# Entry
Amino acid sequence: MEKEKLDHLRHTLAHLLAAAVGKIYKFDKVKLTLGPAVDNGFYYDIDFGDQKVADSDLKKIEDTMKKELPKWTEFEHKEISKEEALKFFNNEYKQELINEISERGEKITTYTCGGFTDLCRGGHLEHPAEEIDPNSFKLDRVAGAYWRGDEKNKMLTRIYGLAFGTKEELDAYIFQQEEAKKRDHRKIGKELDLFTFSEYVGSGLPLYTPRGALIRKLLNEYIEELQSEAGYMQVWTPQIAKASLFKKSGHYDKYKEDMFRVVSNYSEEEFYLKPMNCPQHTQIYASQKRSYRDLPIRMTDFAMLYRDEQPGQLNGLARVRSFSQDDCHIFCTEEQVDEEIDKALQMTKKVMQTFGFKYKYRLSTRDPEHPEKYLGDPETWDKVEAWAEKIMIRNKIDYIPGPGEAAFYAPKMDLIATDAIGREWQLSTVQIDYVQPQRFELEYTDKNGEKKSPVMVHRAILGSSERMLMILIESYAGNFPLWLSPVQVKVIPVRENHNEYAKEIYELLKGKDIRAEFDDADSNLGGKVRDAKNNKIPYWIVIGDKEIEAKKVTLESRDVGQLGQMSKEELVEKLLEEIKNKK
# Structure
């Protein structure tokens, strides 16, 4: 089903939900507010007064929706005056909306279907009873929500529903959500001892254990290896900077509320923790005179970044206040942009193949209704948006439009990756930026001796290392490939008299930089193997009489079971080859 029709279906169901609630809980005892379509479904915020509604009540509401659906044959649209609207909708929430609509000079409209009338601007299915499969939607959960998202307002009851074009799509989504719960990175991260949070340190500020820090380091090193091969140079920048830097870049006006302010005991200067790397990178470029012969200059930076996220939005590693990003900023001539972006896209393709992610791109452009949100002249925006589209087409990349998703200084080519259970995540981005170099008055001397402003290409592949680790934990369900596993092989002697040979194998692996663990605990073999499985170790080696007699090892795999006996040389060759190929 096309997106617009699906949005209309979901919005229609929000109205049907409100009608069912009014029928069960009585319209004169509840106050209906807003009910939009959202990703995967819909919701409606309702003031139930003294009545309580819980998840256990959802079935009767859903059953009422399905019972009422056949009566919803057609929507009737009507324009009414402000006075009529205020009289008809006798609750403070609707009246607040009516007054705002009137102040904006917009028409006040109602939509009626199945005997239920609601304040609405439109966007429904024309014939709900015919177009909605009653098995394609399901009420999902009850939550609290402040009126209009403002914590100063009253807490309302939000009822969420899921809705898709078909029952099969709904079932697939529900299965995906159940699978996601099993793979929750917070649960697996604790079980595998990868990261933790502390109330003393602060919410949204992750602490990595040795195992988690190792995975994070391996991810970063992989990207750095690819970047180094492509001629990118590592830089390092402070984690704080003066407010004047962000005022110059434009971030101060656009993002000040999301930045952490730093106060000095000895100076009245205003500082902020760095929320992004690009402004500081412009100052490295500006530190010397540049010639066209110096370009392109490719800077990479894994420095820590900080953003003041709202406490209610924090979510494990998915949404944090401290994170690092595999940032790269390329300063180049206009003629070099295409080649630099093509290189970045190919590098990104290789990384996505390594992780087994299918992907597409979103071409994120301006919001045409709010030009005031963007810096730079419209002609340059027109040029760069068209340019980005040509790049997508030339590279034969599937892409979807993303109006309103651009950065305030440039359109974006955003990669949307699909993980192992079908969820989509925005990861890498590429941006062609004329605004920042001009605001910072960056220059280079061209071959004719004239001063020109460079183009600044922004590029990230993983995006946030924290968020990428979350995605990988859940996509792999904690079963990391060999190259990323904190412990790659566990060596298990059956009994104490097997320890000497087992220790020899362990030392051999360690000598080859294979991350091995030697389990000589005084416990039975079954317990040791269970421990290896519970810790999701890719391989374990069992050493007993047969192995010592044959001077071989018996290798077992987490993923495919027992692989049988092999020589020490075959073992090392197999493991090193798998690590090298990042399998």
